């Protein structure tokens, strides 16, 4: 659906029971689309089961053709329809429809959304690409931009940034797909000299087929972050045989200076936990490490298909890769890693809120607020500017950190007041007691004096202090935690 | 795909009904879990379904999903499809683990979905088997919330119907009791209970009760007052146990609420003087609150797309108390006997439709050009983009709208989009 909705002139007939239409509102509400997704559901019900459902499917396909007059039709089955064994591909073929039909086999009991989008796009390209149209080989290079879809995290603005880069380099864009492309556009996909794969999760399968069929090389550097953007520009320029300098000289790039200014010194070594889709997670880790001076203390992704990149990156930063789609596992890993900043999806946002940690969103799945009205790309130099602002904003600012320590007994800075801009709507802190605060050794080992001293530590590092002290005490075999133990532990863990 | 026919239905109203079949843009019954689990606090809802089901609940429940909610999905995977025996074993394992982790669960609902029904996984047998195993600690029930069987609020109907056999038998010597059926927000339920107490009706129970452990008794002396129109199955299960249905309008607005309370008062033999004295303050408040909204709504034309079965009572309220003109009132199902007090009150010429062929229905909306269209979130923004004002329907299920003191809020829900349209200058 993400692919069909991204495109123009394409219609998807989905064999699915009543109720599955809920998916429409992801597009109409989260992405706030002003049009219904181009999807016709057969919405079969219990009384239709049996022979009826196949007829229902053919009728739905016929009506969709008459009403929407698409250039091509996608046909597929939902998880329930998969079980009743009507064969949408066969049924559609038997109808001898006047438009090309792209049948989809999406095994919903094995695979998930990203794979579905990638496979759908690949099948569309394979079915619709006109094999007589080959790379034009003109002196002005021609590129396809592959991967952006509906419901993609910042896809709209990333495309604008990447287009601008290509334009600066004097490279023409043949088409962007699937976002905004029609089946007729897809037919002439072979004319490009090379492909730019913006999102490997959705675009790489098709790019590999294009590589084999039309001998179009692909650039796979994802231009998220300053370093990656520069690499991307050099890579594209090399493919197109042009000078990269005009794009590299972009003066809209403020992030490097922001990051070097003394204001940002306090960011050094901040522990950051990163989780999302593999592409965004790996890109985020590089930015965190190389461009903001953070310490990556956790890295993971939810899409197994691209886990290899995450494993490699995790090794580079000396952390264990976390490959899972179980958010409870992610929560445990975050609690254990004791980060000072969490970069993740909507799920990690909620986890961070519960643990009382600052957080920024870097990857789908996301909620409606991450489809913003303003221009906010992740890619290119403007993307790096956006990322700097987004990630630094939730952190308690350097000066505030000092004030909190110096004036911690003043009422404005008491624990109940919380940080001025740190999730103002979070539940009271009593509800948000971090899981990690459970004493390692059980019972109250803390002397009253040490407990009181612990309370003087600003709340956003107190959890870590308690945990570290208790671990230290356990390792040292101390039966009680007094002031001395507290400060011994502090010295032990000082970095 | 779409068998269209105008039926001349028998009955007092004789309203012609447009019946359609085709693509339906509606929720399945699983969505009922989102509000039922808030209401019934000692129960857990375990959906046996696919990732699609889990995704639906995640989308519908929004942020609730992260608050350690009392619902979950046991996801059927490829190997579960291979053999039924394994599937049952797997389910037992999931339930055992869940109950070990959440020992406070007193009642567990196994909720059927499209995939579990198509592969004919017998959840009633599973509930029986697991019920024996966990007897004394956790009661295990089952119902279907699948899209092939249920539409949106019918999930609540199926859930409540599954509770009826669990209700204790009322002692035969006892006097008549009143049973309010349909989940209401606690604040609304309390208002009604106070009113009934003032009227002198004391032996009163609610289905669902706030805890499954406190289910009210039922017997031949039980009188049923439906608070929601979508409870056909629950009603027949209750009448099957001897209870008697009190026909009434639904408690929306000053008049609807008065009629609803009056049905109970009459059944319990209360005199009119006392009835009027008790309800007068609430009724007056409701009328005052409605006056303000009436200015905005009077004469405005409204269409309802099918969603929850609340459409007909709400259209009646908007027509008789707010001066609106219903153009088309769509409902997923039309329970004629339950709506017997509502249908005759709709203005002559109102087009009633049952079922849906969404594209054709949207064509009618475009031709009618109503001032306000009540529809689901999948259609709301696209219609707004075409220049039609909309009121998204789900809010009507999630907001307190029943009774005297919510009448003003209810009208405001419909007035707000119109006011906003007038206010915005962009």
From TrEMBL, chain B:
Pfam families according to UniProt: Oxidored_nitro (PF00148)
Domain Nitrogenase/oxidoreductase component: start-end pairs: 28-416
Coiled-coil segments on the chain, per record: none
Associated pathway: Porphyrin-containing compound metabolism; bacteriochlorophyll biosynthesis (light-independent)
UniProt-listed InterPro entries: LIPOR_BchN/ChlN (IPR050293), Nase/OxRdtase_comp1 (IPR000510), Protochl_reductN (IPR005970)
Stored SUPFAM superfamilies: Helical backbone' metal receptor
GO molecular function: oxidoreductase activity
Cofactor section: [4Fe-4S] cluster
Binding-site residues for [4Fe-4S] cluster, renumbered to this chain: 28, 53, 114
This protein's UniProt keywords: 4Fe-4S, ATP-binding, Bacteriochlorophyll biosynthesis, Chlorophyll biosynthesis, Iron, Iron-sulfur, Metal-binding, Nucleotide-binding, Oxidoreductase, Photosynthesis
EC number of the protein: 1.3.7.7
The keyword Plastid is assigned to this record: no
Top-level taxonomic group: Bacteria
Catalytic activity: chlorophyllide a + oxidized 2[4Fe-4S]-[ferredoxin] + 2 ADP + 2 phosphate = protochlorophyllide a + reduced 2[4Fe-4S]-[ferredoxin] + 2 ATP + 2 H2O
Keyword Signal: no
UniProt remark on cofactor binding: Binds 1 [4Fe-4S] cluster per heterodimer. The cluster is bound at the heterodimer interface by residues from both subunits.
Subunit relationships: Protochlorophyllide reductase is composed of three subunits; BchL, BchN and BchB. Forms a heterotetramer of two BchB and two BchN subunits.
NCBIfam families per record: DPOR_bchN, PRK02842.1
Family designation: Belongs to the BchN/ChlN family.
UniProt function note: Component of the dark-operative protochlorophyllide reductase (DPOR) that uses Mg-ATP and reduced ferredoxin to reduce ring D of protochlorophyllide (Pchlide) to form chlorophyllide a (Chlide). This reaction is light-independent. The NB-protein (BchN-BchB) is the catalytic component of the complex.
Descriptive protein name: Light-independent protochlorophyllide reductase subunit N
Native species: Qipengyuania qiaonensis
Gene transcribed to yield this protein: bchN
């Amino acid at each position: 659906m993400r692919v069909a909705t991204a495109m123009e002139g394409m219609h998807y007939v989905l064999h699915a029971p009543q109720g599955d239409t809920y998916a429409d509102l992801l597009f109409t509400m989260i992405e706030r689309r002003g049009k219904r997704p181009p999807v016709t559901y057969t919405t079969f019900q219990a009384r239709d089961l049996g022979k009826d459902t196949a007829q229902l499917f053919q009728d739905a396909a016929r009506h969709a053709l008459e009403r929407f007059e698409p250039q091509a039709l996608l046909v597929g089955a939902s998880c329930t329809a998969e079980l009743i064994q009507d064969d949408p591909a066969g049924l559609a073929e038997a109808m001898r429809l006047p438009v090309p039909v792209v049948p989809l086999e999406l095994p919903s009991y094995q695979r998930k959304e990203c794979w579905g989008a990638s496979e759908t796009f690949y099948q569309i390209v394979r079915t619709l690409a006109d094999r007589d149209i080959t790379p034009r080989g003109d002196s002005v290079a021609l590129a396809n931009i592959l991967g952006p879809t509906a419901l993609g995290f910042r896809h709209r603005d990333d495309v604008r940034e990447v287009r601008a880069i290509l334009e600066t380099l004097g490279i023409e864009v043949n088409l962007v797909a699937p976002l905004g492309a029609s089946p007729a556009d897809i037919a002439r996909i072979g004319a490009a000299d090379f492909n730019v794969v913006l999102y490997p999760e959705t675009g790489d399968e098709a790019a590999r087929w294009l590589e084999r069929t039309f001998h179009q090389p692909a650039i796979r550097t994802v231009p998220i972050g300053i370093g990656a953007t520069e690499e991307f520009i050099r890579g594209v320029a090399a493919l197109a045989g042009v000078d990269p300098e005009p794009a590299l000289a972009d003066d809209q790039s403020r992030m490097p200076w922001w990051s070097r200014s003394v204001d940002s010194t306090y960011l050094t070594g901040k522990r950051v936990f990163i989780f999302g889709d593999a592409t965004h997670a790996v890109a985020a880790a590089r930015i965190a490490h190389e461009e903001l001076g953070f310490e990556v203390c956790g890295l993971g992704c939810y899409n197994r298909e691209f886990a290899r990149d995450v494993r490699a990156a995790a090794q580079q930063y000396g952390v264990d890769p976390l490959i899972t789609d179980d958010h409870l596992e992610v929560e445990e890993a975050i609690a254990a890693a004791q980060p000072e900043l969490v970069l993740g999806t909507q799920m990690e946002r909620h986890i961070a809120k519960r643990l009382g940690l600052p957080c920024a969103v870097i990857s789908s799945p996301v909620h409606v607020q991450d489809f913003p009205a303003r221009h906010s790309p992740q890619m290119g130099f403007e993307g790096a500017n956006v990322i700097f602002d987004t990630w630094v904003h939730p952190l308690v600012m350097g000066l505030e950190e000092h004030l909190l320590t110096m004036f911690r007994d003043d009422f404005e800075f008491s624990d109940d007041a919380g940080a001025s801009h740190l999730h103002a709507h979070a539940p009271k802190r009593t509800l948000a007691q971090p899981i990690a605060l459970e004493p390692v050794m059980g019972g109250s080992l803390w002397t009253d004096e040490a407990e009181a001293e612990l309370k003087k530590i600003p709340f956003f590092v107190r959890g870590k202090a308690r945990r570290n002290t208790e671990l230290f005490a356990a390792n040292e075999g101390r039966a009680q935690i007094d002031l001395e133990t507290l400060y011994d532990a502090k010295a032990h863990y000082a970095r | 795909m779409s068998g269209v026919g105008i039926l001349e239905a028998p009955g007092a109203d004789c309203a012609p009904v447009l019946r359609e079949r085709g693509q339906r843009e509606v929720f399945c019954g699983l969505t009922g879990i989102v509000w039922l689990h808030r209401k019934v606090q000692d129960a857990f809802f375990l959906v046996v379904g696919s990732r699609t089901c889990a995704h639906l609940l995640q989308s519908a429940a929004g942020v609730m999903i992260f608050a350690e909610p009392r619902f979950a999905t046991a996801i059927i995977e490829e190997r579960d499809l291979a053999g039924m025996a394994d599937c049952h074993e797997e389910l037992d394992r999931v339930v055992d683990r869940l109950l070990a982790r959440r020992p406070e669960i007193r009642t567990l609902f196994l909720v059927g979905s499209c995939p579990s029904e198509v592969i004919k996984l017998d959840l009633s047998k599973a509930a029986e088997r697991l019920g024996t195993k966990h007897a004394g600690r956790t009661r295990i029930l089952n119902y279907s919330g699948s899209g092939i069987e249920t539409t949106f609020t019918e999930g609540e109907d199926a859930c409540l119907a599954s509770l009826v056999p669990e209700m204790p038998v009322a002692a035969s010597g006892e006097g008549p009791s009143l049973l309010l059926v349909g989940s209401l927000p606690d604040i609304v339920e309390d208002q009604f209970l106070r009113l009934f107490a003032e009227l002198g009706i004391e032996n009163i129970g609610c289905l669902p009760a706030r805890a499954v452990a406190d289910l009210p008794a039922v017997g031949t002396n039980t009188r049923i007052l439906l608070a929601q129109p979508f409870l056909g199955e629950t009603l027949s299960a209750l009448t099957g146990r001897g209870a008697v249905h009190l026909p009434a309008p639904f408690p929306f607005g000053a008049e609807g609420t008065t009629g609803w309370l009056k049905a109970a008062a009459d059944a319990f033999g209360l005199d009119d003087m006392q009835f009027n004295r008790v309800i007068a303050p609430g009724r007056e408040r409701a009328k005052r609150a409605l006056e303000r909204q009436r200015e905005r709504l009077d004469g405005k034309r409204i269409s309802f797309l099918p969603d929850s079965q609340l459409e007909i009572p709400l259209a009646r309220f908007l027509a008789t108390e707010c001066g609106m003109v219903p153009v088309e009132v769509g409902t997923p199902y039309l329970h004629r006997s339950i709506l017997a007090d509502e249908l005759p009150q709709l203005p002559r010429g109102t087009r009633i439709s049952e079922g849906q062929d969404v594209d054709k229905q949207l064509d009618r909306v475009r031709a009618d050009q109503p001032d306000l269209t009540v529809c689901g979130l999948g259609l709301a923004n696209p219609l707004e983009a075409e220049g039609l004002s909309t009121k998204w329907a789900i809010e009507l299920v999630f907001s307190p709208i029943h009774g005297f003191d919510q009448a003003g809020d209810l009208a405001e829900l419909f007035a707000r989009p119109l006011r906003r349209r007038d206010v915005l200058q962009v």
